[in-house]
Design brief:
Elements (H helix, E strand, L loop, with lengths): L4 E3 L7 E3 L7 E5 L10 E2 L4 H6 L8 E5 L11 H12 L4 E6 L1 H4 L3 H6 L1 H19 L6 E6 L1 H12 L6 E5 L22 E5 L20 E5 L10 H11 L6 H19 L6 E4 L3 H5 L11 E3 L13 E5 L10 E9 L6 E13 L3 E13 L2 E9 L6 E8 L15 E4 L1 E6 L5 E6 L4 E4 L5 E5 L11
Parallel strand pairs: 5-6, 5-7, 7-8, 8-9, 9-10, 10-13
Antiparallel strand pairs: 1-2, 3-4, 3-6, 11-12, 11-13, 14-17, 14-20, 15-16, 15-18, 18-23, 19-22, 20-21, 21-23
Helix pairs in contact: 2-8, 5-6
Length: 460
Amino acid sequence: MFSCFFLTLGSTTDKKWDFSSIESKFSLRTPGKPDEDTCLIVPGQETSVSQCSFNHTSKTFVVIHGWTVIGMYESWVPKLVKALYQREPHSNVIVVDWLSRSSLHYPDSAAYTKEVGEDVAKFVDWLEEQFSYSLNKVHLLGYSLGAHVAGIAGSLTTNKINRITGLDPAGPNFEYAEASVRLSPDDAVFVDVLHTFTRGSPDRSIGIQKPVGHVDIYPNGGIFQPGCNVAQALLLIAEGGLQDADQLLKCSHERSIHLFIDSLLYEEKPIMAYRCNSKEAFDKGLCLSCRKNRCNNLGYKANRVRSKRGTKMYLKTRSQMPYKVYHYQVKIHFFAKVNTTKKDQQFRLSFYGTKDESENIAISLPEISTNKTHSFLIYTEVDIGDLLIVKIQWEKGSFLDWADWWGTPEFGIQKVRVKAGETQKKLVFCSRDGFSYLKKGGGAVEFVRCLGKNSVDHDS
């Protein structure tokens, strides 16, 4: 450890720095060896900064890992380092090593986030005051417990850090904690958070459930991520080898990191998230507006929205990188001569556009009723371009669906309204015959772009 030394800042009085309590290590990784701690910057030792070729004119990313069972860096660390350098080749990517404290019994490691946060704050303050390095260039990225380390660090620095990104901040011990001991919006000029594994009751959820940033994004509702069930994880291991075996245990929690990596690598495919009050409202397609900052980019190019209360945002993703999908709200008004209500009905929609097509998208509606408009969300994994044709098929029920034994249920549909989240276009599709009848277990019904003034939906 390092003894005290004195630092003179111009005409100011001498300031006493004490680095003796710092146990964390600060490794400046390199693009060529993103998985190796080849050069350590030691707080208080100015020569270590020049020896590690720290770039004083570029931005600095500080990566902070979370709790680890094995006491070693997890496989995502070099992947994130490499992606950061790929996007920002001249930047400094520093990995904080607090492995000795993060591999203890979880409650003990959680308690150590305070000390590690203090370490990071001293390190950042030293860079600023010793080298006049602006905190406007500093971006902390913390995963799980590391997100709270970043928050504590941000609350303790003399001046505000530019940005903190929380990657599925840990839930246990923090869901009901005071803002001063966890990540919060006050910890940086801009705090954005990805919540990817908030399953279970609040006190048992792996990831924190409540909003803790200026922008809080909940991919796939934040509960569970596609591709993270056992069968799909085993398939990934079969395809990618044993290096992906750890995904089996923490797939959804770690997805937050890979979504951020996606935002670094696929600049031309920004993932969109949409402000919404609840997952249920989002799943009805009710929240695909981009007016008044209601939509935002996920990850690196997130737009800075600083509201007094946290902004919850939602989106869907694919199961593998690139994760981007294209969101659509579909509204259908069902007509029938006899009042009818059907529960838990299965449909398939097909979209045909100028660039591509997406067929047989499965949709389950909890209830459909006569003379009522139903709204729901669907998404496509491909960019179909401008939508030209919509087809709808009502799937046959199970053998046990007794209500359908005495006749085939049928609804009339005149128009299908579609709003595209990514382009914000609102379109109306008409039946070729003016009116089409959708029969359960029958063939697909086709709708084409309406002509003239009826082609744009002014009601959405």
